[in-house]
Q: What sequence folds into this?
């Protein structure tokens, strides 16, 4: 029987990473839950076995329930009537299977009926679900909004809301408005305090809200009258049980049809403040978005895996001119590049998730006791690494998902344009990944400061000290030269001291950094498991080297004066 986890050896490899020892140690707090909860692990091996078993369950459900439902859900989609959303019948079946298996509130503490999982195995579950149906992945994986409520809500809110999510209730984050897309500081949904009822009231419209008829919403609203910037925004919790929010319509989208994207009308809706006033955008949404961006990176990797699977199977089966098309260089070149991008992007995703795990676990410990100086230094180190790697993981993997989905259709030829082949659904689903939760252009904005302040090059130089197999020394030398070119371009742009030039070449600099980092991560993976990653290492270094050279040649020859030619277009 198929399994979307155990069938992918590369995923199992990423679970078995040396950093997991520290992650489990921090997350389980010396395995203190073992005397209170019979499902809590007693040691590191037991914890890892638990993660593996849960992933195997999710892999089974995705292969044998969610994937078979995907085409039907894509065709049927959700429906809206009387201000409410009805999921497609297959989506209802998917949710029921996941809830019955206990796959909700996975990262939450056991005292709230969660599994107390680190971010890394949870992110793997999100990848696996997305590989089966990215639209359903949007509904199921929004459970990670509870991370923000757990981090910034009070104990009473924890006790009331977290167990409901662990029991299977759904969540949404209501941020975007008709006049506030990427520019969230322009949000105008109004929050006013109701003295008589001792609650907040929300009025206004939200647009493009994923899973907008969810049970529990985190809502960004303007609580400070007279303000027009981010300092006037707060975060609120809206409970669907209280009423006051109607779904005006479900958007008619290109892809991810199973996921209802809603326009919501708030009419004096009762809500409660989450955290402190005026910190909604400045602090809480930033945390919420970082989690969401890691989630979209996982969704992107899942889609890349799905595109590769479909293309590989078709290329093996389809014959032209008397032989399977996989034997033609034009086809196996595309397949090898798809696989290399998949492996490189996945390496970046899980390196990022491990960084997130360590700093978030230390943040959680800091709410219980004072961190030691060593722990504070560790927290600071991994928070910075997580913050710098997250835009790379989201930006690069969403672009790779689109490229792989495109190439997947190309390998199918004319058949790929027909609706009966899954590759066209994967292609449509992938397109949104480089747009929502921050476009690739916004990921560049988030990443560029780590280019100019030297963080990326410092990390790359540390990676250069990692031992590799003797047969990979040639790759190491080539990747070092890539780093030199990235560093030279960075210095040249900084020396030019021209902000518009800096912004114009920012994406090229970000991609040079990401390409070089992914080469190193793949080299480390291939050193541990050459049987899994040596081929992709070879292909990806060839690909990345050409990309870096392209950007190097563009940046070193580009002048501020040439910008005028682009402005005129």
A:
């Amino acid at each position: 029987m198929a399994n979307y986890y155990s069938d992918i050896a590369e995923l199992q490899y990423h679970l078995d990473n040396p950093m997991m020892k520290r992650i489990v140690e921090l997350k389980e707090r010396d395995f203190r839950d073992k005397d209170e909860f019979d499902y809590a692990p007693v040691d590191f091996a037991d914890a890892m076995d638990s993660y593996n078993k849960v992933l195997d369950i999710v892999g089974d459900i995705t292969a044998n329930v969610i994937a078979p439902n995907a085409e039907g859900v894509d065709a049927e989609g959700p429906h809206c009537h009387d201000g409410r959303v009805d999921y497609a019948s297959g989506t209802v079946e998917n949710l029921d299977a996941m809830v019955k298996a206990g796959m909700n509130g996975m990262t939450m503490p056991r005292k709230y009926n969660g599994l107390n999982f680190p971010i890394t195995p949870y992110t793997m579950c999100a990848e696996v679900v997305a590989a089966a149906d990215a639209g359903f992945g949007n509904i199921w994986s929004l459970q990670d909004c509870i991370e923000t409520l757990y981090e910034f809500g009070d104990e009473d809110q924890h006790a009331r809301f977290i167990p409901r999510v662990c029991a299977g209730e759904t969540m949404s984050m209501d941020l975007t408005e008709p006049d506030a897309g990427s520019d969230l500081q322009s949000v105008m949904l109004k929050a006013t305090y109701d003295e008589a009822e001792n609650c907040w009231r929300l009025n206004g419209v939200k647009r493009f809200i994923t899973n907008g008829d969810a049970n529990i919403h985190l809502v960004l609203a303007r609580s400070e009258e007279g303000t027009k910037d981010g300092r006037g925004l707060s975060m609120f919790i809206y409970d669907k049980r209280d009423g006051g929010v109607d779904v005006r319509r479900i958007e008619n989208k290109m892809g991810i049809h199973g996921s209802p994207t809603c326009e919501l009308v708030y009419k004096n809706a009762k809500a409660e403040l989450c955290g402190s006033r005026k910190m909604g955008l400045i602090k809480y949404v930033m945390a919420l978005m970082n989690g969401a961006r890691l989630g979209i990176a996982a969704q992107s990797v899942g889609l890349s895996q799905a595109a590769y699977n479909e293309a590989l199977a078709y290329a093996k089966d389809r014959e032209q001119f008397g032989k399977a098309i996989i034997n033609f260089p034009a086809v196996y070149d595309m397949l090898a590049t798809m696989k290399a991008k998949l492996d490189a992007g996945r390496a970046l995703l899980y390196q990022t998730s491990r960084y997130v795990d360590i700093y978030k676990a230390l943040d959680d410990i800091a709410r219980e006791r004072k961190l030691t100086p060593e722990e504070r230094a560790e927290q600071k180190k991994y928070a910075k690494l997580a913050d710098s790697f997250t835009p790379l993981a989201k930006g690069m993997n969403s672009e790779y998902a689109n490229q792989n989905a495109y190439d997947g259709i190309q390998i199918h030829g004319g058949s790929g344009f027909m609706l009966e082949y899954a590759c066209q659904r994967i292609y449509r689903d992938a397109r949104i990944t480089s747009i929502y939760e921050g476009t690739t252009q916004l990921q560049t904005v988030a990443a560029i400061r780590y280019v100019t302040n030297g963080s990326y090059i410092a990390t790359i130089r540390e990676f250069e000290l990692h031992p590799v197999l003797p047969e990979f020394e040639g790759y190491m030398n080539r990747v070092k030269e890539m780093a030199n070119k990235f560093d030279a371009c960075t210095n040249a742009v900084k020396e030019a001291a021209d902000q518009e030039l800096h912004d114009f070449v920012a994406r090229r600099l970000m991609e040079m950094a990401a390409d070089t980092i992914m080469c190193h991560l793949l080299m480390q993976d291939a050193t541990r498991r050459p049987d899994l990653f040596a081929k992709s290492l070879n292909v990806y270094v060839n690909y990345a080297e050409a990309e870096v050279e392209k950007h190097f040649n563009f940046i070193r020859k580009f002048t501020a004066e040439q910008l005028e030619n682009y402005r005129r277009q």
Notes: The longest strand covers residues 261-274.
